[in-house]
Design a protein that fits this description.
Distance between the termini: 47 Å
Strand content: 15-25%
Shape: globular
Structural class: alpha/beta
Largest sheet: 6 strands, parallel
Length: 700
């Protein structure tokens, strides 16, 4: 394959720069997997986080560049890429700044969000504008249907693309081709990944997507739906059992990830000092000053309001901001995991970590999210996401610690290429976690080191501020639904990691019902600033769309506006519309009294409410059910506010259904009221987003 005179020279020639930008660790894990596989294919990957700008220089880089980039929020690049994006967006850079650069990019995203894979797309587009050329087609992996559907074929095809690039460069150097001819030859079409047809595309277009027509979108959506339906395998299959043809197939399973952690458990010596959870920013421990249930007992979901006392801290926020709650794993699940691992009697032992001397893992490092010398109980409770869905690499590692032949075979199937549909159905879609797998495969007895290598960091959970510090100084309010779901494998009802913990924490405050209860404490941290704020010009009209708990930031908006109007009675303030929806008027109409108060005072100029499960009385006209139906009823006002009055529209809540329905309805309204086709209407919405006049705070 290579005519280099020495292996050392070959490795030097076959080096590539590998950058990742991650928010919760997925892009980093994929980049590390690429680095491990690179060695077996004869390449050397120089791996860095995109934020480590002192360790690479794209302006002088001669090796090919490979990037793995995730997306966070509503299409933002991850925090680790923000400085990089800011630097390449510098409009003073010459258009040939990166003309020497050849790259391949893998974007990670979720098509339930409007700006799918936008973190990667922004970088991809800007690199091309600055003269860089792809040696390998961009991949867009969709967490909605399973990242692995794109990641695996993209990574598999990377090696051939790199080999072609290096071979082409070697021939050019040997032939002494002039620089101009070299540049022209390198503009050849990039290598295409295998199975590129499985990449996800969404109907919500950006400004630069104007070349794509509706029939293309519908055809791709149909293909994606067909792909999802293919994941529904034989009805006789289960997590622990397969059916033909998979049960009789020869399997292609991933390479065994190299182990790299050495774990020593040390008996505690006297009183242990309390360890702290690793955090990128400041952490504030604050008391709960109030808690209330906002829904009735017979409501489908239970919604709680929690008020925190931040008066003794430096924590500050604006209406529309979000913050993070640092939460622990379920105590009962931690105990079950300890019991299953036969470590219950050692839960108080200190965990000492070191790198295995003979590890084959390149660049092995101790996990930064595990504090030094803390107890095993603390690590499983506060540091590791034990509910995380195990990746295929983890399943592959578990195979070698499983003694029963039938169980071993099934784990091999689940991590194999042939078993992709079963993995999606019984692991990913079912939300199976490590504890589920260990209970389903009793002969699997992994060492603690394997868990510490493969379980990701327990992430803080974000919540929208539902108050204004101008109106309620020293207080911070937020609301949440108590998430409850059935474990797909065990059938047991589980609560959300954070909402379940919060509900238990404030139970005594709720039961006190006005009486004095011990003040529970929680740890919070501010989140990076966003643009989901009221307009800087208070005379600009505002439309707010927030069904269910999506109303949270808008309560802060209204409190803030009320206080401003009291302080500045002569100032002109724009109209404020709120479109709110819930299931039942008498069960889950959140903040009903507060909203009526704001409406009576004229702070909220238009209050439009709908109830999706209430049936109209006999003889009454059927009311609208959903917030997008309410928007459609006021299409003239919506279009006028956005297009003629330079108003702002804010959408908060569920990304999967509500946000998409609202977006489609807005496109329909613009198309109808302005007299343009759907594509032009969608381009108008994209422009509003670019201007920060169409803002979303949505979640899946």
């Amino acid at each position: 394959m290579c005519d280099c005179p020495s292996r050392a020279a070959c490795l030097e020639v076959m080096r590539f720069l590998l950058l990742y930008a991650t928010q919760q660790g997925q892009a980093k894990a994929i980049a590390e997997e690429i680095r491990e596989k690179a060695v077996a294919h004869g390449f050397s990957a120089d791996l860095h986080c995109m934020s480590e700008s002192d360790k690479y220089d794209l302006k002088t880089e001669t090796a090919p560049l490979v990037m793995v980039v995730s997306t966070t929020g509503n299409g933002d690049p991850p925090d680790t890429a923000r400085m990089f994006v800011r630097e390449i967006q510098d409009r003073t850079l010459p258009t040939d700044c990166f003309a020497h650069l050849r790259y391949g990019l893998l974007g990670l995203g979720d098509s339930e969000y409007t700006f799918f894979c936008n973190g990667g797309k922004v970088i991809d587009k800007r690199l091309e504008e600055l003269g860089a050329r792809r040696f390998y087609d961009t991949g867009h992996a969709d967490d909605c249907v399973g990242l692995e559907l794109v990641v695996e074929p993209w990574v598999d095809g990377l090696w051939a693309a790199l080999a072609k690039h290096f071979e082409s460069r070697r021939r050019e150097e040997m032939s002494g081709t002039p620089a101009a001819a070299l540049d022209a030859s390198r503009r050849a079409d990039p290598v295409r990944p295998q199975s590129v047809h499985i990449e996800s595309h969404i109907e919500l277009l950006r400004l630069d997507d104007s070349g794509r027509n509706d029939s293309d979108v519908l055809e791709q959506n149909a293909a994606n739906r067909g792909q999802s339906s293919a994941l529904i395998g034989d009805v006789e299959s289960s997590l622990t059992r397969s059916a033909p043809p998979l049960s009789q197939a020869s399997l292609n399973i991933p390479a065994l990830p190299p182990e790299y952690l050495q774990v020593h458990l040390q008996e505690p010596l006297g009183q242990e000092s309390q360890a702290s959870v690793a955090s990128a920013g400041p952490v504030f421990q604050v008391p709960v000053s109030k808690a209330a249930q906002l829904t009735t007992r017979d409501a489908v979901k239970t919604t709680l309001l929690v008020e925190l006392d931040i008066s003794e801290t430096d924590f500050t926020y604006e209406p529309g901001d979000a913050f993070s709650v640092i939460c622990p794993n379920s105590e009962s699940e931690v105990q079950s995991l300890l019991h299953r691992l036969r470590l219950t009697d050692r839960r108080g032992y200190r965990v000492l970590l070191s790198i295995k001397a003979a590890t084959k893992r390149t660049g092995a490092a101790l996990p930064q999210h595990i504090p030094e010398k803390c107890s095993l109980q603390f690590i499983l409770t506060w540091c590791l996401e034990i509910r995380a869905i195990p990746k295929k690499a983890f399943l592959r590692a578990l195979v070698d610690w499983t003694s029963d032949g039938t169980e071993k075979r099934r784990l091999q199937e689940l991590c194999s290429r042939q078993g992709a549909a079963d993995y999606s159905r019984f692991v990913r879609d079912a939300g199976a976690c490590l504890l589920d797998l260990l209970l389903a495969f009793p002969s699997c007895q992994p060492p603690l080191s394997l868990l510490l290598e493969h379980l990701p960091k327990l992430q803080p959970r974000p919540y929208s501020c539902a108050s204004s510090s101008l109106s309620q100084p020293g207080k911070l309010r937020f609301i949440f639904n108590i998430v409850e779901f059935s474990s797909g494998t065990l059938g047991a009802v589980r609560r959300g990691v954070c909402t379940g913990w919060l509900a238990s924490l404030v139970a005594s405050v709720l039961q006190a019902d006005g009486g004095k209860a011990p003040a529970a404490q929680i740890s919070i941290s501010p989140r990076t600033s966003n643009s989901f704020h009221l307009p800087s010009d208070p005379s600009a009209p505002v439309m707010m769309v927030g069904p269910g708990t999506g109303i949270a930031p808008f309560i802060g908006f209204l409190q803030h506006r009320e206080k401003l109007q009291e302080q500045h009675p002569d100032r002109r303030f724009g109209a404020m519309w709120l479109f709110f929806g819930c299931r039942h008027q008498d069960r889950d109409y959140l903040f009903r009294e507060e909203l009526h108060h704001f409406h009576r005072r004229g702070i909220l100029t238009h209050l439009e409410v709908c109830f999706s499960r209430d049936t109209p009385a006999v003889g009454e006209e059927a009311p609208v059910k959903y917030v997008h139906d309410s928007l459609r009823l006021h299409s003239q006002q919506v279009a006028g506010l956005l297009l003629h009055e330079r108003g702002h529209i804010y959408v908060c809540g569920d990304a999967k259904n509500m946000a998409k329905d609202v977006n489609d309805t807005l496109a329909e309204i613009i198309s109808k009221e302005v007299g343009v086709d759907k594509l032009e209407a969608m381009k108008t919405l994209a422009a509003l987003k670019e201007e920060k006049r169409y803002l979303q705070d949505i979640w899946s």
